[in-house]
Amino acid sequence: MLVRIEPEDVEIGMFVHAFEGSWFDHPFWRSNFRVETIEQLERIRNSGIEGLMIDPERGIAPSGGRQPSKGEEGPRQKLSRSWGRPRPTVRTAPLPKIFAQPDPEDRAAPRPRRGYSSECRRAKPVISRTRAAVVDMFEAARLGRAVEVKRMVRLASSIGASIERDAKALINLVRLKEKDEYTYLHSVAVCALMINFARHLELDPQQVEDMGVAGLLHDVGKVAVSDAILNKPGALSKDEMRSVRSHPAAGHRLLASSPGAPEIALELCLRHHEKVDGTGYPGRLKGEELSLAARMGAICDVYDAVTSNRPYKQAWTPCEALTEMKKWQGHFDPALLDRFADSLGIYAMGTLVRLSTGELGIVVGSEGEADEDLVVRAFFDCDALAEIEFVDRTIAPSAEHPRIIGRDSPTFWRFPDWDVLRHKVLAAEIIPDEDEG
Ligand SMILES: [Fe+2]
Ligand SMILES: [Fe+2]
Known about the structure:
Elements: E1 3-5, E2 15-19, E3 33-34, H1 38-45, E4 52-54, H2 75-79, H3 88-91, H4 116-142, H5 149-165, H6 169-175, H7 182-200, H8 205-217, H9 227-230, H10 238-244, H11 247-256, H12 263-271, H13 292-306, H14 318-327, H15 334-344, E5 352-355, E6 359-366, E7 374-381, E8 386-395, E9 404-407, H16 410-413, H17 418-427
Antiparallel strand pairs: 1-4, 2-3, 2-4, 5-6, 5-9, 6-7, 7-8
Helix pairs in contact: 4-5, 4-6, 4-7, 5-7, 5-8, 6-7, 7-8, 7-13, 7-15, 8-12, 11-12, 12-13
Bound molecules: fe (ii) ion (2 copies).
């Protein structure tokens, strides 16, 4: 039997059946899912919706099996008097994997990258086949021929299967492309990022596949732009800029005449250079006018561009890319950009994270060769619920280093003035991490 509860009574582990009110007020893209992260919990509580239906048979039931009556003090109100402490209502529910208390033995255990190298081996031929198909597609498009959509669907499905086996293998391989491979491998990379992102957003399998196909096809209109312009290191002239800006409409025209092209692919092709503040092209659409595919595509497209070596720019690390992209006010949907970061497990500088040491810390930089190499300044002990002397922890993919369990929420920990504390942590002098030699 479904039970109606208010947003503040939602707990991790509950299964949301439906939200009340208009779809546009919902904090999620779909309303049928299990609440698994603190971030989801916060989004529901801060959404402004009045109520929601939960299904106790598919998740945990409301505490005590009833709602506090009006005027009665609920658990949240009782707890709000003591800052800095997590709400027991959250802790009583089964914690999701990424926020579970780490096993103290975990630090000595090998990194859980089982299957990563074997998936890298399997992903390489998938990337080569897809790259070859993208080359063929661009050549056919130059001759005015339609896109072979069925072939692209098959390849997107192979990429999806690789991501399902190991989300990082193919995405990491395709990101590390050489300068001269960018044009074709960029389409493969955007396909993989879109599939991974769509899976993370729990879209249905058909939508996930369509998003992947859309990623492969999104830049097909670039056949209308010369390579000299596309790879020009300096500023573009007005005419060159006009030529570059014609590629979304050119691609859309080509896909519209290609039998079987999914609607999402046409949409992404036309809209991946729009910005949420309405300053993008070709339509200067903004906010709600932009579809989910357009907003997702804008993020995946730029992320791959800035994390790839280009003739005129060295690649940024994932941390640097996300840090910069978060600063570009008005370009991306900020909530969706956070979800994208979660989908890849990447962190911008300044992000609050939980460490496997049981500490909270703020990401203060990235260093080293691997994507995961970060420096996190620990400042809070989650078990003692107390601030600690600040210490910089080096995060790296090896058993000797602590690892990031996940992004955490300052609201959840109820720091009395998070901005002040954050500033204090960021402005502190770096202390070497003696534990790690
Ligand atoms: Fe583009
Ligand atoms: Fe692109």
